[in-house]
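Input chain follows. Return structure tokens only.
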Amino acid sequence: MPELRVRDHEVYFDAADARLFARMAAAYKINIGGVPTAFLGDRVFSGYAEDMQPQIEQAIQLCIARHCP
């Protein structure tokens, strides 16, 4: 998916990234549940399990189609 831009941040040892994570969580009105956390358009995925993959891929495709920030 060449249109997909992934940004990763170290939130435990990097104070600036931890603050960004907290601001993102506040903007999405969620409690931080842990990592990995993916913000995709208007969706948030916290944690990872293989059965989440279809939902994540669907959210990515929707964001690509809608040009999500």
